[in-house]
Amino acid sequence: MNINMTLIGQSITFAIFVWFCMKFVWPPIVNALEARKKQIADGLAAADRGKHELELAARRASETLHDAKLKASDIIAQAEKRAAQIVDEAKNAAKDEGDRMITAARAEIEQESHRAREALRAEVATLVVAGAGKVLRREVDAKAHADLLEAIKAEL
User: Are 149 and 129 in contact (CB under 8 A)?
Assistant: First the structure.
C-alpha cells in the first residue's frame, strides 16, 4: 500500500463528505439557526413592547388613581357641605319648633291666667255678697243684685 494513494483516497472521501454535509446537512442546521434567531429577536421585541405597554398601563393607573382621589375628595367635600346644611336646617327647624312651643305656652299661660282671674273675680264676688250680708245682717240675693255684682267683677 502506497501512502500517497491512501492520502489521496482519504482526501477525496473527505471532499465528498464535506460536499454532502454542505448540500444536505448544513442547510437544515442553518435554517433552524435562522428560525431560532428570528424567534429570539421576536421575543425580545415583544418583551420591549410589553415593557412599554406596562409603563403606559402604570401611567394610566396612576392617572386613574389620581382622578379617583380627586373625585373622592370632591364627594367628601360635598357630603360635609350637605351635612352642614342638614345640621343648619335641623337647627332652624328646632328653633322654629321651639318658638312655636313658646308661643303656644305663652298663649296657654295667658288663657290660664285669664281663667284664674275670672275664677278669682267670681269667688271675690261671692265673698263680697257674703260679707255684705253679714254687714247688713240680712240675706243679699245674688240674683236680685246681679247687675251690682257684675259691676264689682268688672272693677276687680
Answer: yes
Tens digits of residue pLDDT in 73-125: 999 999 999 999 999 999 999 999 999 999 999 999 999 998 988 888 778 77
Domain, as residue range, for 110:
40-155
Residue at 84 is within a domain: yes
Per-residue exposure over 117-152, b if at least 16 CB sit within 10 Å of its own CB, e if not:
eeeebeeebeebbeeeeeeeeeebeeeeeeeebeeb
Sign for the CA dihedral angle at 7, 10, 15, 18 comes to negative
Report field, pTM of the whole predicted structure over 0.85? no
Cα 105 from chain centre? 41
Domain assignment present for 30: no
- List the grid coordinates of 18: 464535506
How many domains are there within the chain? Answer: 1
Residue 9 lies in a domain: no
Encode pLDDT of 27-54 as tens digits: 999 999 999 999 999 999 999 999 999 9
Distance in angstroms (rounded) separating the CA atoms of residues 15 and 9: 10
Within a domain: 151: yes
